[in-house]
Amino acid sequence: MLLRIDHVGIACHNLNEKIEFYESVFGLTVVSREVNEEQGVREAMLHVADGDQGASYVQLLEPLHPDTAVGKFLAKRGEGVHHIGYGVADITKALAEISAKGVRLVDERPRHGSMGASIAFLHPKDIGGVLTELVETSRR
Ligand code: V0V
Ligand code: CO
User: Which end of the chain, N or C, is less packed with Cβ atoms under 10 Å?
Assistant: First the structure.
């Protein structure tokens, strides 16, 4: 069901500072920057690698307000890994299969994600404390 790691989402206080850090330390390149009001984030995708099943990225996330998913995470836990995003071929089918196994869905239906992807989150409390995101994308 999971095709690849699409991205690792990392929560930070200052997006521009973290972009510069990842560029200078790892030589990564920003391929997309977006504000996603629904998700409460300002985010950047930095390309890591290309594979048979598509590309993988680091996603840097800065909250738009304290009262957002990433804002609350930062207040509670500080900066660090926020979620893992896995590529899937058919997100609606994957959600139905995962839900049938008793894992709580944060999103019953797909939402708009970075670079035109369809995304949906699974509840971290049912996945060993890991906030997990499914990503269906046409990008390669
Ligand atoms: C919260 N918890 C986490 C967590 N966030 N555990 C692991 N990883 C995380 N990232 C834990 C938290 O410590 C609490 O456990 C419990 O879940 C409830 O947390 P809360 O602070 O009370 O917050 P809630 O319940 O209001 O919200 C938690 C959820 C929320 C996961 C439901 O963060 C959410 O809806 N996330 C999905 C949307 C999202 O994260 N969007 C930003 C990325 P204890 O302390 O009580 O044990 S947007 C994105 O990735 C995009 C656009 C993209 O990829 O394209
Ligand atoms: Co994400």
Answer: C
Residue of 76, 81, 91, 80 whose CA lies nearest to 122: 91
Q: Is 137 in the pocket of ligand 1 (CB under 6 A)?
A: no
Domains, the chain: 4-136 (3.10.180.10)
pLDDT digits (tens, 9 = 90+) for 88-138: 999 999 999 999 999 999 999 999 999 999 999 999 999 999 999 999 998
State the ligand closest to the CA atom of 127: 1
CB neighbours of 109 closer than 8 A, spacing ≥ 6? 92, 95, 120
What letter would DSSP give residue 39? Answer: T
ipTM score of complex: 0.98
Among all chains, which residue has been given the structure tokens 């997309």? 32
CA of 93 to the centre of ligand 2 (A): 19
Q: Which residue has tokens 């991205």?
A: 7
Verify whether ligand 1 is closer than 6 Å to residue 72 (CB atom). yes
